[in-house]
From TrEMBL:
Residue ranges that the Swiss-Prot or TrEMBL entry lists as coiled coil: 424-451
Lineage of producing organism: Bacteria, Pseudomonadati, Pseudomonadota, Gammaproteobacteria, Thiotrichales
Keyword match Coiled coil: yes
NCBIfam families associated with the record: sensory_box
Pfam families named among the record's database cross-references: GGDEF, PAS_3, PAS_4, PAS_9
Protein name from the UniProt record: PAS/PAC sensor-containing diguanylate cyclase/phosphodiesterase
All residue ranges annotated as the PAC domain in the record: 128-184, 266-318, 390-440, 513-566, 636-688
Occurrences of domain PAS (ranges): 51-124, 315-358, 441-511, 563-609
InterPro entries: Biofilm_reg_signaling, GGDEF_dom, Nucleotide_cyclase, PAC, PAS, PAS-assoc_C, PAS-like_dom_sf, PAS_4
Length: 733
């Protein structure tokens, strides 16, 4: 019959059928269904071929090595990675037994191990090798690999016999990163043999008012769509209704009733629940089939899973909304006319143009720095495929004439009938402002560092200089350009260089700042003591990448400290009493000799006025004259009677000095005191003995001579006469 002939043509792969039947009979409608089925199968085959082509491209582009054998274990395909690792080119390996090309051995023993393909043929299962497998390349190189081999079965054969093996192997260092992808690829290849793009099912119309539609047939491909095999769907007539929502079931039943009543065909979208709970969206095509009596007794349905398409459409809308709302500027323009076909909101708002205005413009209207010839020369490598993308910086001009700097990422989209350029543009005004501010900050920091009297330098972990300031240049006597890239040994003697290196290592090894003192000699021969702080430099990740050193000349400081120590020692050990007061003349410091001289302990006099030593022997006029002389000359010296703590009055030689700061402000008085009581007593005794007789205690000739001389001077000064009468005592010796 005609239907048998058409069915035979489908079986022979002749998918383009024509319906010779006419009229409105069940056979004619069934023939139409066969024609539609043939067209669908042809479309499915085309899709499978496209997927096979994409698979072939994927096979050559993946990073893993892949070898495919026929059912005899001979190589029929291998990708470039497999060629690289085995050392065999595909044309040389084709038809070779797999062990000849895929030579593997145990990494530990070096012994040849059985080929995984043989195990696949023997067991019919996927075989994986352990990670201690070595692949011996034809070039002599070896790779530590792991691999898996999977059978390629022909599902359409009754026994599902193995038609070949796909072998996937990889370097063990990338095994864990790529294992999942390889497994998915293997599964994809296996599933490709079983794939079916649609599900066909048939409803019989029965004489049952409660349920006039009885599911009588479901194709095996339903499992790919629903996760449940055809036996499940046919096990109970209530099953298929349970996988539809109330609204979906109502719509489907209305469509079935319309077809039962009116015949013809309908198409609509339908959602049903998958085995795992999610919903699958299908494009459902239904046609009513009449029997020989002209009665509609079947409805044949064919559904194609469009979930991915619907999701892609939703994602496309979502992505389009994201691109439209993006603050970055996005442009799409024709590769021939250069006219804009799409400009997002971010670009429109920044430029001040509307979408309609931009539709009449080209990139040249925004980039005034380019001529048409220059712009076309620039994009030529994209058109010829020499470059996948272009990145450049230029200016965009707004509608009002102002311009702003931009960074452009330009790519060519060859998909579709007409190639288009896609430009992602970033307004770099703020970035350039930040870069300028950063540069100014760096310049300021550099000036600050260069103006510092401290020696500042940076080294890498090998002790090589990478940066230094002006003071450091002066120390080495060379400009920074001649210092960078060299070490201490290039500028100082061996011992000094070794000292510097040891101190560097201390800072790096201790992992924290280290302070040390180093004597150095400048090129002019001057020696200086440097106090150097050395601290590790770290990268953003915390890794030590170098050393920062800051050296300060503390020669004068050291000398001042030594002088201060000497002065302190003199202050403590001196035999003369020393008293220091503040500007308000309150005692702030005394030495031990002061306590010995006055009897006062230091704690007893701190914060008090020196008048506590006053004996009362001098009147106010004396002190007024003393302070006046002190203010005029900054110093005063003289004799003064003071009182000890025990009440004794003693004669003291007092020297007072005023101390001023660098601004001339009085800050201290320093008084040095010596007890001259005994000295004065001795002086008086000596003077008395010089002018008196030791026996009689009467004045002697020396005193007479002194008194006569004084009288003569007085008489001469006043113009008076002087008479001298000399009486001698007889017999006095």
């Amino acid at each position: 019959s005609v239907l048998e002939s058409m069915a035979h043509q489908l079986k022979q792969g002749q998918l383009k059928l024509s319906n010779p039947l006419t009229g409105d009979t069940a056979q004619q409608q069934l023939a139409e269904t066969l024609v539609e089925t043939g067209a669908q199968l042809e479309q499915q085959i085309l899709q499978i071929r496209e997927k096979e082509q994409r698979l072939s491209i994927t096979l050559d582009s993946i990073g893993d090595a892949v070898i495919v054998t026929d059912k005899e274990g001979k190589v029929i395909r291998m990708n470039s990675k497999a060629e690289q690792m085995t050392g065999w080119q595909q044309q040389d390996a084709y038809g070779q037994a797999l062990p000849q090309v895929f030579d593997i051995a145990n990494a530990s023993s070096g012994e040849t191990i059985s080929n995984p393909v043989e195990q696949v043929f023997a067991t019919g299962n996927v075989v994986e090798l352990a990670n201690h497998t070595l692949l011996k390349s034809r070039t002599g190189q070896t790779y530590h690999i792991s691999d898996s081999a999977a059978p390629i079965r022909d599902k359409w054969l009754e026994n599902g016999s193995i038609q070949g093996v796909i072998l996937v192997f990889q370097d063990v260092t990338t095994q864990y990163a790529l294992r999942e992808k390889l497994r998915e690829t293997a599964e994809f290849l296996q599933n490709l043999m079983r794939i079916s793009p649609s599900v066909t099912y048939v409803f019989d119309i029965v004489d049952d008012a409660s349920n006039p539609f009885r599911l009588s047939y479901v194709s095996e491909s339903v499992k790919n769509h629903s996760g449940l095999d055809s036996d499940y769907w046919l096990s109970d007539q209530a099953v298929w209704t349970e996988h539809l929502s109330a609204d979906e079931l109502d719509e489907l039943q209305k469509a079935l009733n319309r077809l039962r009543k009116n015949g013809g065909s309908e198409a609509h979208e339908l959602r049903y629940r998958h085995r795992d709970g999610h919903y699958v969206t299908v494009q459902n095509h239904m046609v009513a089939v009449e029997n020989q009596k002209g009665e509609i007794d079947k409805i044949i349905c064919n559904s194609v899973d469009v979930s991915a398409q619907k999701k892609a459409q939703a994602n496309s809308v979502w992505l389009g909304d994201i691109l439209e709302r993006s603050l970055n500027e996005i442009y799409v323009f024709d590769s021939k006319t250069l006219m804009f076909t799409l400009v997002n909101k971010g670009a429109r708002e920044n430029l001040g143009y509307s979408q309609e205005e931009l539709a009449c413009l080209t990139p040249l209207d925004l980039k005034h720095e380019f001529t048409e010839r220059e712009f076309k020369q620039m994009i030529e490598p994209l058109l010829t495929g020499l470059k996948p993308r272009l990145r450049f910086e230029t200016f965009h001009y707004r509608k009002d004439g102002t311009r702003y700097p931009v960074r452009v990422d330009l790519q060519l989209d060859n998909r579709g009938e007409q190639a288009r350029f896609v430009a992602l543009v970033e307004d770099t005004s703020e970035i350039q402002q930040q870069q300028q501010e950063l540069q100014e900050e760096r310049s300021l920091l550099r000036r600050i560092i260069d103006s510092s009297p401290d020696l500042i330098f940076c080294k890498d972990t090998n002790g090589v200089f990478i940066r230094c300031n002006k003071a450091f240049e002066n120390y080495f006597g060379h400009p920074e350009s001649e210092i960078i890239g060299k070490t201490d040994a290039d500028f100082v003697d061996k011992d000094t260089a070794e000292l510097f290196v040891r101190n560097d290592q201390l800072a790096l090894q201790k992992n924290h700042s280290h302070i040390n003192q180093e004597w150095i000699r400048y090129p002019d021969g001057r020696s200086a003591l440097l106090e150097t702080l050395k601290t590790p430099l770290r990268s953003p990740s915390g890794e030590i990448v170098g050393l920062l050193g800051i050296s300060r000349d503390i020669t004068l400081q050291r000398q001042a400290e030594q002088e201060q120590q000497l002065a302190a020692m003199v202050f403590r050990c001196g035999q003369e009493a020393v008293m220091i007061t503040d500007a308000n003349n309150n005692i702030i410091k005394v030495n031990p000799a002061f306590s010995s001289c006055t009897g006062y302990d230091e704690k007893e006099v701190l914060g008090k006025n020196p008048r506590l030593l006053s004996s009362g022997a001098q009147d106010a006029a004396f002190y007024e004259m003393m302070w006046q002389s002190l203010k005029q000359n900054n110093v005063w010296s003289g004799e003064i009677w003071n009182r000890r703590k025990n009440g004794d009055i003693y004669l003291q030689w007092l020297s007072i000095s005023m101390v001023h700061d660098s601004h001339g402000k009085l800050i201290n008085h320093v008084a040095i005191m010596s007890d001259i009581t005994k000295f004065r007593e001795a002086e008086n005794t000596i003077s008395f003995l010089a002018q008196h007789d030791a026996l009689t205690r009467l004045p002697n000739r020396s005193m007479l001579k002194d008194r006569v001389r004084q009288a003569m001077i007085s008489a001469e000064r006043h113009g008076q006469k002087l008479a001298l009468m000399y009486l001698d005592l007889d017999r006095f010796t």
